[in-house]
Amino acid sequence: MKAIIPGIAMVAALFAGCSTNNSSNNTAATSADTITTNNETAAMPVSEPASVDAVVNDYLTLKNALANDNGSNAADAGKQMMTSLQKLDAASLNADQKKVYDDVKDDMKEHAEHISTNASNIEHQREHFDMLSKDMYDLVKAVKPAKTLYQDHCPMYNDNKGANWLSETKEIKNPYLGKKMPDCGTVKEEIKQ
Amino acid sequence: MSKSKKIIIAVVIVFIAIQFIRPKRNIDTAEQQGDFIKKFNVPANVAGVLKTSCYDCHSNSTRYPWYANVQPMAWLLANHINNGKAELNFSEFAGYSKRRQLSKLKAVANSVHDGSMPLSSYILIHSDAKLDDSKKQLLTTWFSKTKDSLDAQQ
Fold it and tell me: ipTM of this model?
């Protein structure tokens, strides 16, 4: 997207040059200045690098949106998770943690992306959430979360094959079956900080 | 010359000019070392369906239709194929991490089951790629089974 903006500015400058012969140089010069300024602001880091905890928080927002059958909130959380993963600074991780992170990060980004683009297809979001939950579990087992998490199990999802998810509460709020069966599931494991 | 005539001539000139801008074709004749069919010992009936219905967009070799010689159709196709390969490339499947392989095996079973793949726009032109119920069943069962057995290997 960023690449397109200078392109448009350039084309606009060319057209301006065609219609007003006398001031074409000036127009082009002004546009070029604007472009440089834009690029500089875009390159500046806007905020602190995100941590694994930011990704965990996005995951929990996503999980709660799915438990409430809200596909568009889930999509927003997926999008947010993509940003957090993009910004995550792996320098703070030790070698073992980094190995797990490298293993899961691309897969997580892909699932987050699919969730973000399927606001109107919550069942598809849930399929990706199932796989994302496995990645998330492996990640928090390696990098301890800032708050205690619970791994829950729903035996009914996936034609009774079952699926797991992570939650910040002991109370069950099923993200796979949503409001149809909100309290279906059991706590399998407590992941301490 | 009237204004509309000028426009028509301009369109024709642009159309002819763009015929010379041809995207590189997605045809790799070398043997694909990382190919899915080889790596997973895919049975012939499943492999046949994969090649007819999936490999055009999800591998390194596409069977091109005649209109792929006409621009801008070829650009659209190239874009389509690039997206398809980024999502899943059977020719390079063996190079994926185990995690990604599992997730892709599951995604294939799901998307065939719910009918989101092959794309309806693709089936419109390639009627042989359409999956009837028995082919759908064949793929979903085989992919789920393969996913479960890969999952069980540690």
Answer: 0.72
